[in-house]
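Support request, please re-run this one:
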Amino acid sequence: MFAKACLLAALSLASVSAFAAECETTVDSTDTMTFSTDEITVSKQCKTFTVHLTHSGGLPAQVMGHNWVLSKADDAVPISTDGMDGGFENAYLKPGDTRVIAHTKLIGAGETDSVTFDVSQLDPAQAYTFFCSYPAHISRMKGTLKVIPG
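Re-run finished. Output below.
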């Protein structure tokens, strides 16, 4: 009986971890203005979600810098446009822009950065976009972040 109880407990733990939500992802950026993915799924089971941004290209941030910015879909282009005035030192984001939900710093070849944000502030009914705010990169470097119920 004890062996059966231990087996059931082990199977129960295995199934819980098999269904555990992934609460982080890695997105690579390149010198050809691309992200390695155009869709990220976030579970409401996650309290926070972390995006690790890498740059596998060979060019420095001043020439081919990339960041990862999250906003509501309708806000992405206006954020990118308004961010031009923010300049390189502000990652081409308008300082204090409340439409930006989360963002990494601008990185260049061989660099990495991460950003962690609170999943509770995301609404599964809302459309979200992630993009690079470096000038003109949003035209090719963007994707959809989907929020799913637990």
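The longest helix spans residues 2-18. DSSP finds three helices and eight strands in the chain.
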